[in-house]
Design goal:
It comes from Ceratopteris richardii. The protein has 477 residues and is α/β, with parallel strands linked by helices. The chain has 2 domains: 231 residues, 3-Layer(aba) Sandwich (Rossmann fold), CATH 3.40.50; 183 residues, Rossmann fold, CATH 3.40.50. The chain is built from 18 helices and 15 strands. The longest helix has 21 residues.
């Protein structure tokens, strides 16, 4: 490498499988590249096909950010020795992944971008700590959810050691008859255990997910820092609690989305929204993984019909079970709602949520979707399903009052009357109006985070400066 050239840090960004992980990791990569990092974006062969599903607007554009991103991000697919990756095993790891990544790092030493300065890894890939230690570089965690979820993960072992978990009772019961209050996290107020993932509440420490999070907690102690895809203005208590525990946590969210307009072939849904009144449409989407049963889809459809409001509903092709929609939805539903509703298999979600016609978002409460809704100032009708989604719902509905939680059946299912009353409450009720005001307030806070002087900008700059100093030391004679 030419010693006269300015030495820039080189980050290896390792994403887990799933669009909910790949997309925010690419958003982070773009922000790092804009700061001056060279970025090697890593995914593995068993889920490399998911790159094709990535929002095209996330990929580097030569004209974007005055050329600061173009040429600074390279995507690499490494072998993991697996034919495919099951959706129910998104965090699977093996020795091949470790060796492939280590070989890649060692092979980059003589490249123009230089030897990697650090590994930026999601917590759900704790195996990257060993690779970083063997390579002699720091591991930085990027948590693509919120600070509360990270706080919960890094304080989980206590719940098992004290006998609080596993809980007694039925894991299929949506609302606990005698809610357990968790007060084990120093600096964070007590909260109901029922908003925790059922896989953690009702399984013992030998369960694969519990073992994974136990490993995450152990490895987190050795990370150089953790970058969290949230912002302190909406989570001051959680960030303070992390600080009390000695965790070097930095808020870097919400990471800016390039937000390119869709191509003409994808714009039919936007044209449809153009014909609707302001704040009149309920938008429905359940992310890239959550699926609804046929019974739930029928109840949701009947609730939408009963609400009388315009709707845009995303039903992924894999949720249609290779059937025509007319075979899945209630008989006559498509005809009765023709013109009032639009059903599509994919939507440019950021663009849809930013449209003046969208008045509410019926969502599974995945963190990416939650951030996108709040960034657009759109209140949510919360219908959490899996993982940390009930924690996110707790934030949206109970802490920020930026949404309404949909009532559920005893086992957490959907029912026509709950869908209908939830939509009406969000779009037309006093609670919904207050939720809109609060969502708009959070939208303004989110904008400030990435303006000059904002927390996210300052924390990304600090990360760049620290890694550049480390890089310069490693290149000094």
């Amino acid at each position: 490498m030419d010693s006269s050239r300015r030495v820039e840090p080189h980050a290896i960004v390792v994403s887990c499988s799933g669009q909910g992980h790949i997309n925010p990791c690419m958003l982070l990569s773009r922000s790092l590249a804009a700061m001056g990092f060279h970025v090697s974006f890593i995914c593995f062969s068993s889920y490399s096909g998911q790159l094709q599903q990535m929002n095209r607007s996330l990929l580097p554009d030569p004209a974007d950010l005055a050329g600061r991103v173009s040429g600074r991000i390279c995507v690499h697919v490494l072998d993991d020795g697996l034919e495919h990756r099951d959706l129910d095993k998104p965090f699977l790891s093996n020795s091949t992944m470790k060796e492939s990544l280590l070989t890649f790092i060692n092979g980059k030493q003589e490249m123009d971008v230089g030897r990697p300065t650090c590994i930026v890894s999601e917590p759900f890939a704790p195996w990257t700590l060993e690779v970083a230690q063997r390579a002699g570089i720091p591991r930085v965690e990027f948590h693509s959810s919120n600070a509360l979820a990270y706080l919960v993960m890094t304080n989980l072992v206590h719940l098992y050691s004290e006998g609080i978990y596993p809980e007694k009772g039925s894991p299929t019961k949506w609302t606990a008859e005698n809610p357990v209050m968790l007060d084990h996290i120093p600096g964070f107020p007590p909260f109901r255990s029922e908003i925790m993932p059922a896989e953690l509440r009702f399984n013992d420490a030998s369960h694969p997910l519990v073992k994974l999070i136990t490993e995450i907690e152990s490895c987190s102690k050795h990370s150089e820092r953790v970058l969290i895809h949230s912002f302190i203005d909406i989570e001051p208590t959680a960030f303070k609690a992390l600080e009390l525990q000695g965790v070097k946590a930095y808020d870097v969210g919400p990471l800016p989305d390039p937000g390119k307009k869709t191509s003409s072939s994808k714009a039919e849904c936007i044209s449809w929204l153009d014909s609707q009144g302001d704040h009149s449409v309920i938008y429905i989407a359940f992310g890239s993984i959550s699926t609804l049963s046929v019974e739930e889809m029928q109840e949701l459809a009947l609730g939408l019909e009963g609400s009388g409001c315009p709707f845009m509903w995303v039903i992924r092709k894999d949720n249609q079970k290779e059937k025509d929609l007319s075979q899945i939805l209630p008989e006559g539903f498509l005809e009765r709602t023709k013109g009032r509703g639009m059903i599509i298999s994919w939507a440019p979600q950021v663009e849809v949520l930013s449209h003046r016609a969208v008045g509410g978002f019926l969502s599974h409460c995945g963190w990416n979707s939650t951030l996108e809704s709040l960034q657009a100032g759109v209140p949510m009708l919360c219908c959490p399903r899996i993982a940390e989604q009930r924690l996110n719902c707790y934030y949206v509905c109970e802490q920020w009052n930026a949404g309404v939680e949909m009532m559920r059946t005893d086992i957490g299912g959907l029912e026509k009357k709950y869908v209908e009353t939830g939509i009406k409450a969000l779009l037309y009720g006093e609670e919904g109006l207050q939720a809109r005001d609060n969502a708009q307030r959070i939208m303004e806070l989110a904008k400030k985070s990435h303006k000059e002087g904002g927390h996210a900008v300052a924390n990304l700059q600090r990360f760049y400066d620290d890694m550049r100093a480390l890089c310069s030391m490693s290149h000094s004679p």
